[in-house]
Amino acid sequence: MRVVAAMSGGVDSAVAASRMLEAGHEVVGVHLALSQSAATLRESARGCCTLEDAGDARRVADKLGIPFYVWDMAQRFKEDVVEDFVAEYAAGRTPNPCLRCNEKIKFAALLDKALALGFDAVATGHYAQIVEVPDASADGGVRRELHRAVDPAKDQSYVLGVLDADQLARSFFPLGDTTKAQIRAEAAERGFSVAKKPDSHDICFIADGNTRGWLEQRLGERPGDIVDTEGTVLGEHRGSFGYTVGQRKGLGLRVPAPDGQPRYVVATEPRSNTVVVGTRDLLGVDAITGDHARWCGPAPEGIVTVGAQVRAHGEEVPATAWADGDAVQVRLERRIQGVAPGQSVVLYEGTRVVGSATIAEAGRA
């Protein structure tokens, strides 16, 4: 196969490219330029898309002896990921930009361009597994399923839950059967200079990790009230977009709770520009409605038993789920806390990813 290896400049994508080459594929390395003002040097482990990263990717490609290109997708990234991120927070939701980037950039824009140029597939350094199983609907054919990685600490199947069957058919994740420690050791054996390079984490386009400050620069200060569930004003905020359900720190309440117990954000209401706080027990939910459903294969028929996960490295909770038109209904076997609209719920059957949806509502059944 002719394969585009997405090379971020990190150790994972370097080893992924080398494994695809060893497997006998014709591999071309591609670095995605996603920043419209890429820094010369990486300032922290949070950032990415620096000129340093592009240089690291090129050096690995040179060592492997494969062609290497930089594809400019900064404008697409700005529109589909960054601007979406700002709009979601302004609307009182808590988005996951990594899922949006995988959906809109790496497995839409990148894959579409690769296919248009005559390539067969895209390979990335994500920690997840593709498993081929017999497909009864195709004579002698197989179906590709998305499964968790063997290393639970690095498993990234959650952020890949937005991929559909057609995208999975043209995707490779060569690292899914390996632990991170083994990947670093393999990179060192191959002589890659990135073998000990720190991982990037958190939100890649907010290098200092200060999400509230970053949003305030773009949305401006929007002072409003922090209230309890009865509407009593307890404090002020500079913008409801700076708060998310389940948050406890940084509330700055001037009125202590009568029982002395801590308060948590239980809702943000952008229309009235208020932040609602309450006791911890109010955070528990067991009923989720998700929209923008994405299935990693056939949509489930009827009510199915699944595991539901609402954070990238959160726990999986036993649940039942069913498709409801373009929406998904999920009922958890027990209540969980800190579930906010805008987050994604990803459904599993064993280690297999069934699909995902964006949380529209969360409450109690």
TrEMBL record:
The keyword Transferase applies. Residues 214-278 form the tRNA-specific 2-thiouridylase MnmA-like central domain. Residues 286-359 form the tRNA-specific 2-thiouridylase MnmA-like C-terminal domain. The record marks H126, Q343 as: Interaction with tRNA. Signal peptide: none annotated. ATP binds at A6, M7, S8, G9, G10, V11, D12, S13, L32, G125. One of its GO terms (cellular component) is cytoplasm. GO terms for biological process: methylation; tRNA wobble position uridine thiolation. It is an enzyme of class 2 (transferase). Residues 154-156 are annotated as: Interaction with tRNA. InterPro entries: MnmA-like, MnmA-like_C, MnmA-like_central, MnmA-like_central_sf, Rossmann-like_a/b/a_fold. CDD domains: MnmA_TRMU-like. The active site is at C101, C204. Transmembrane segments: none annotated. Keywords: ATP-binding, Cytoplasm, Disulfide bond, Methyltransferase, Nucleotide-binding, RNA-binding, Transferase, tRNA processing, tRNA-binding. It comes from the Bacteria. It catalyses: S-sulfanyl-L-cysteinyl-[protein] + uridine(34) in tRNA + AH2 + ATP = 2-thiouridine(34) in tRNA + L-cysteinyl-[protein] + A + AMP + diphosphate + H(+). HAMAP family: tRNA_thiouridyl_MnmA. Catalyzes the 2-thiolation of uridine at the wobble position (U34) of tRNA, leading to the formation of s(2)U34. PANTHER family: MITOCHONDRIAL TRNA-SPECIFIC 2-THIOURIDYLASE 1, TRNA 5-METHYLAMINOMETHYL-2-THIOURIDYLATE -METHYLTRANSFERASE. Belongs to the MnmA/TRMU family. This is tRNA-specific 2-thiouridylase MnmA.
